């Protein structure tokens, strides 16, 4: 009777080498019985319990790992030096294709990708530059590494910002051409209103067309220009400013005309608004376009455990009706302090405080005005991101001196809206407005505006919004209906959060 029928599992030995250690495996074999007769019997526990052998094997394995890591770092450094030097030569325009050097490839080596990327392990096949870097790695003193990485004029190849500034070199470092990023946005609106005197009442219009251009000026600044063409109006510069990127103390600066850092809605352009129209409190306090000023701004991230950002702007003060001095002799000071907190993996809240302080009126009869703002934004976004919820609220309070008596007149207003994302393309929401009006005494506006959004894509969106404004005696009630289509061509810049 064979061994298989007796229930005995014959085995053979197979030796495998893993990391320099020989392991003996057991597998089926027909000559197991013959081998077992001549195989010496050893105690497994005795052979495996020798601590000196185990420590020697671990030391040998550790030394092999150290050698592999050192060799990998040397190859990585050689590759980086080659890339940097080729980039420097290409930026000068004198780059020539080097002659091909045949490198032996071990046919038994399965990892051909490593050979193609890092080259052969034979140092004789490397270029003189690579050999120099290899010697620097073998003696990794700081002076040797700096000497091997020095470029033209002693500049470090690891710091491209210190290279001589020229258009070709700068463009290659940025990985783009010198053409600016461009965007064109069109805001098409059909508007119905039952009260006479409403702007663009009962007509379809291209409410606004925007042309945007932005590009890096050099490693230290970038420029942004936005031109706006409202319906039946001349082309104008809506924003044009330079952003200074390398100011000390981790500051970032802006100089020019820009949407001032006040609240949440003010910094958003018309075609990107969460609703078709701006809240009543913004149009009553700052006009149809909001607070847009020319001046100098600074921003920084504050060293708090949570995300906290501060934006400050010194402006001319051209915005009416609370300001309008239009002179740096009594500038308009604007600030916004933003704080962001994660409530959970799917929920977050942002809290901000704003202030605008300046003068209005003529030189001989100027008065001070102050507008304070508080904004709170709640986000709920589940992991699949097919649904989402946003709830945003802003409250504004204004104080201004009477032009003759000097007494302070207080006004306030605010809005709150909630929007729910039904699917990837559909969302619906509603906004509630309240505002006291500075131009009409004892007048108040209270309105409610539901709306529906349909996103064709990230670049095209449809919206239907209805708004009813209630009467308070001084202001008559009215109804408005908008059908809006917004389209973006070219670069779609990221939205602020």
Q: What are the SSEs and their pairings?
A:
Layout: E1 12-18, E2 21-27, H1 32-38, H2 44-48, H3 51-92, H4 112-118, H5 128-138, H6 142-148, H7 167-174, E3 181-193, E4 203-218, E5 221-230, E6 236-244, E7 252-259, H8 280-286, E8 292-301, E9 307-315, E10 332-342, E11 347-360, E12 367-380, E13 388-401, E14 408-421, E15 426-436, E16 444-457, E17 460-470, E18 478-490
Antiparallel strand pairs: 1-2, 3-4, 3-18, 4-5, 5-6, 6-7, 7-8, 8-9, 9-10, 10-11, 11-12, 12-13, 13-14, 14-15, 15-16, 16-17, 17-18
Helix pairs in contact: 3-5, 3-7
What would you say this structure looks like, in words?
- It is built from eight helices and 18 strands.
- It has helices at 32-38, 44-48, 51-92, 112-118, 128-138, 142-148, 167-174, 280-286; strands at 12-18, 21-27, 181-193, 203-218, 221-230, 236-244, 252-259, 292-301, 307-315, 332-342, 347-360, 367-380, 388-401, 408-421, 426-436, 444-457, 460-470, 478-490.
- A hairpin with a 6-residue loop joins strand 11 (347-360) and strand 12 (367-380).
- Helix 3 (51-92) runs antiparallel to helix 5 and helix 3 (51-92) runs antiparallel to helix 7.
- It is elongated.
């Amino acid at each position: 009777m064979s061994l298989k029928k007796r229930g005995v599992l014959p085995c053979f030995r197979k030796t495998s080498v893993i990391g320099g250690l020989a392991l003996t495996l057991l597998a089926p074999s027909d000559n197991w019985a013959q081998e077992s007769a001549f195989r010496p019997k050893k105690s497994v526990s005795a052979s495996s319990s020798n601590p000196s052998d185990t420590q020697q094997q671990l030391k040998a394995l550790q030394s092999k790992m150290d050698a592999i890591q050192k060799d990998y770092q040397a190859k990585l450094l050689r590759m980086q030096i080659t890339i940097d030097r080729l980039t420097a030569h290409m930026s000068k325009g004198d780059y020539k294709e080097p002659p091909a050097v045949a490198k032996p490839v071990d046919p038994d080596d399965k990892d051909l990708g490593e050979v193609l990327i890092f080259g052969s392990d034979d140092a004789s096949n490397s270029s003189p530059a690579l050999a120099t870097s290899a010697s620097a790695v073998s003696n990794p003193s700081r002076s040797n590494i700096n000497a091997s990485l020095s470029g033209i004029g002693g500049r470090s190849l690891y710091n491209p910002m210190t290279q001589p500034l020229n258009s070709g070199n700068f463009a290659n470092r940025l990985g783009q051409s010198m053409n600016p990023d461009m965007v064109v946005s069109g805001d098409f609106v059909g508007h119905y209103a039952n009260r006479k005197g409403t702007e663009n009442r009962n007509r379809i219009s291209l409410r606004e067309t925007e042309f945007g251009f932005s590009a890096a000026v050099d490693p230290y600044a970038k420029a942004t220009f936005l031109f706006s063409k409202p319906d039946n109006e001349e082309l104008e510069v809506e924003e044009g400013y330079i952003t200074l990127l390398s100011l000390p103390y981790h500051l970032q600066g802006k100089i020019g005309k820009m949407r001032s850092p006040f609240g949440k809605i003010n910094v958003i352009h018309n075609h990107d608004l969460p609703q078709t129209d701006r809240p009543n409190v913004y149009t009553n306090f700052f006009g149809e376009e909001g607070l847009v000023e020319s001046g100098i701004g600074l921003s920084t991230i504050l060293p708090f455990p949570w995300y906290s950002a501060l934006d400050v702007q010194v402006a001319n003060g051209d915005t009416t009706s609370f300001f309008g001095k239009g002179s740096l002799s009594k500038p308009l000071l604007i600030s916004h302090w933003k704080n962001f907190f994660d409530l959970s993996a799917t929920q977050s809240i942002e809290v901000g405080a704003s202030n605008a302080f300046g003068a209005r009126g003529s030189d001989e009869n100027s008065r001070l005005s102050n507008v304070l703002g508080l904004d709170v934004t709640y986000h709920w976004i589940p992991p699949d991101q097919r649904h989402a919820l946003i709830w945003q609220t802003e409250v504004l309070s204004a104080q201004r001196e009477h032009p003759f008596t000097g007494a302070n007149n207080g006004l306030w207003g605010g809005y709150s809206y909630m929007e729910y994302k039904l699917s990837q393309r559909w969302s619906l929401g509603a906004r509630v407005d309240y505002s006291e009006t500075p131009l009409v005494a004892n007048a108040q506006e209270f309105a409610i505006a539901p709306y529906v959004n349909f996103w064709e894509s990230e670049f095209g969106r449809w919206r239907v919004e209805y708004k009813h404004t209630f009467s308070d005696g001084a202001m008559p009630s009215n109804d408005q209906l908008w059908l809006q289509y917004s389209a973006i061509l070219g670069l779609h810049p990221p939205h602020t959060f």
